[in-house]
Amino acid sequence: MPIKIPRDLPAYDSLARESVFVITEDRAKSQDIRPLKVGIVNLMPTTIDTEIQLLKLLGNNPLQVDITFLKMGSHSSKNAPPGHLEKFYINAEEIVRAKLRFDGLIITGAPVETLPFEEVDYWDELAQIIDYSQNNVLSCLHICWGAQAALYRRYGIPKKPLEKKLFGVFPHAVKEQDNLLFRGFDDEFLAPQSRHTACDRDAIAANPRLTIQSETPETGVFIATAREGREIYVTGHMEYDPLTLDREYRRDVSKGLPIEIPKNYYPDNDPSKAPIVRWRAHANLFFDNWLNYVYQETPYDLGDL
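The chain above was modelled as a monomer; its predicted structure follows.
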């Protein structure tokens, strides 16, 4: 699926080198189809890395996807390159004022999970976007802290601190093989995890509007859904590239933070060896399935959502 992004977005050249199908605005205007409109609320400090990771997964189908990057206007990023957010992003609250609608919306994780939700400096703005997406987005995909935040905002489900960071690549089971999100999945699949907190599993299970689609005793709830796929909550990071966990591990070691070697990641548990990637196929399949679901269910006129 070609993704429509600006030619001068830094991610463009990286994606092109890896043969990810990208399309410029001029080329998109010559195609007589309605592209899927997907917004990405990028809350990660690794701004460009996260863009590349998600765009790789969204650029793998025969339909055009029109990408809009959204940022929190109430938060000043210290890690994005100078001028990058101003050039390529719009403030998320502007979609509410302009009454913009999306076929799909992705809300990423953020390094704020140890804070109470209300103490995050952009919480009010993010809560507004979560509320707005309820009736103005066909399907919203929430990742890691983004999933925790939306479960708390919509259902009052709390997060709980873990005894130690859940860190590494873990096996996850599929509970409902006939769910469209898991079409083509094996019974068990691997996915990265990197978090200090977990959603309250009992609270999720007790809510009749939520369905647990994937969980294991080691990681807890991995994927939950609501409204027949219009809300998707993923507590891990299927989008991570091969070296993301490695960078996180070495960053924490250099800061003298208590961090264990990421589990099931380095050969022989040896950080001097290059990690083995074992989650990429299922990550691509999951995002393909999500986009195909959105394509099949979305109205041609987004005003009919």
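DSSP finds ten helices and twelve strands in the chain.
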